[in-house]
Amino acid sequence: MASKAKQIYWAVRRVLTEKPGIMVERWETQTGDRVLPDDHFETMVYYADGPVNLYQIRQWYEPLKALDEQSPVLIVCRSVTAALELLEESPLPVAYAGRVEDLENLVDRQRFATALYVNQNTRNFQMMRFNTMLHVFISHGESDKSYMVSGQTKCYDYSFIAGEAAAERLGQHLINYDVDTKTIRIGRPQLDYDVVTAAPPLPDDGRTVVFYAPTTEGDRPSMRYSSLASHGVAMMKALLASPNHRVIFRPHARTGLFSEEHAAARDQINAMIAAANLADPRAGHIADTTPTFDWQLQVSDVCIADISAVVIDWLTTGKPVVVTRPVNAAAPVPTEGYIAGVELLTKKQAGQIVEVLDRVSADEALAEERRKWSFYYFGDTTKGAATQAWLDACRRVRNERHAMLEGHEVSTGDPNAAMEAHREVTDIEELDIES
After folding, report:
1. Angle between the 260-279 and 233-240 helix axes, to the nearest 10 degrees?
2. What range does the domain containing 220 cover?
3. Where are the beta strands (DSSP E) in 78-119?
4. Secondary structure class of 116 (helix, strand, coil)
């Protein structure tokens, strides 16, 4: 199996290095050709995952473009297949570094002051051995999931967090962690930018637009927050039968990766939407496969979501939201923050979703609560404020790194340790080929 995987891997690399135009300009070739300018990039965005998680980096494109004007940014991929997609779409330069020695060569040739991480992939640790830069966790959204208080957070020099909620959450759940010195608040800079993806045309007919965005089923019991298999079909059946509602259904990009039941529920709802539109073309229900999460916030009137970053982002709209209760008891329900204070929709209530939405939408007290919680999670949401905080935070880290290096002799680390780390990765894991 490993031999076959390597054959596929080198075939893909060969195609990439021979492809003309922008791919060649941004590609680190197998033979070591230096297609990227040396001693140029100051900020690295490190991405060790495959294509399925690219949504985590796509949401940072606009803030990273703003940063690139002050500190040249390079996206570094450890996965061939992810690099393929990023090379086609990214507004920023991309390099591929499949092996630890590739990382060493890249670091030696550039002047990286900061490495930014959008997730907690285990191969982040291979990058963190480099001691000539500061390592910063920027995550891929603000939420009350247990993921947000992982002990892995301690590995980074800093974590950029959204606001007060994140600071309190880390302070309450992480031991031996100094929130005040290890975190920098930046709000949610993604919300400063106009919609990137054009919304599909929607009829102006008075229907209430309902955005249903179930999260991933998770790769372990403690992350099984998804309502798709438990609530989804019953809710969509009720909403699609209503002449007063229009559905935008956007399942998580990783849906079905760990659960056939969730994949089946997704496919069933997509079929239900197609059938409803065929029966009444004016209904205009949408099975959303667009690449970004932005336009949905503007065109939708109400949101149904699980305990996830979608809920927290939605709070900034001020519009009604219904949050589902996970059916898996191993998935912890937050005891603080916005989620702790709202009624969560149970599986048994899923069929009554139309009535629940009507009640939540009419409750003015809930509207005031949403405004209050938005500030708690994100701070100042005035357009441009978070982007400025983001740029200021990045500048602060760069300046600190430069000051720390003055008078110090540094190296990229022990090459023997690098080779040892390299041997720990199996062929299949290293090549990012699905078995």
Report:
1. 10
2. 208-378
3. 94-96, 114-117
4. strand
Would you say how long the chain is, in residues?
A: 435
pLDDT tens for 275-333 read 999 999 999 999 999 888 889 999 999 999 999 989 999 998 999 999 999 999 999 99
Q: Is the pLDDT of residue 256 over 50?
A: yes
CATH number for the domain spanning 115: value is: 3.40.50.11720
DSSP state at residue 324: B
Answer with the one of 378, 395, 415 that is the final residue of a domain.
Answer: 378
pLDDT-derived band at 75 (thresholds 50, 70, 90) equals very high
Domain count, the chain: 2
- Amino acid identity of 390? W
In 3-state terms the chain splits into helix, strand, coil percentages (rounded to 5) of: 45, 10, 40
* Beta pairing class for 321-323 and 302-305: parallel
User: Are 260 and 315 in a shared domain?
Assistant: yes
Q: Which of 363, 378, 393 is the last residue of a domain?
A: 378
Q: How far apart are the first and last CA of the chain?
A: 8
Task: List the CATH number of the domain containing 358.
Answer: 3.40.50.2000
pTM above 0.90, yes or no: no
Does residue 150 lie in a domain region? yes
For 217-255, b/e burial (b = at least 16 CB within 10 A) is bbeeeebbbbbbbbbbbbbbbbbbebeebbbbbbbbbbb
| 405 plus 370 within the same structural domain | no
Alpha helices of 90-200 — where are they, by DSSP H? 100-109, 124-127, 164-173, 179-182
CA 192 – CA 53 distance, rounded (Å): 23
Question: How far, CA to CA in Å, does 195 sit from each of 190, 192, 293?
Answer: 10, 10, 9
- Whether the Cβ atoms of residue 332 and residue 163 lie closer than 8 Å to each other: no
Two tokens at 39?
């001693």
- Same domain flag for 119 and 8: yes
| Paired tokens of 117 | 């991480």
Q: What is the phi/psi pair of residue 65, to 5°?
A: -65, -40
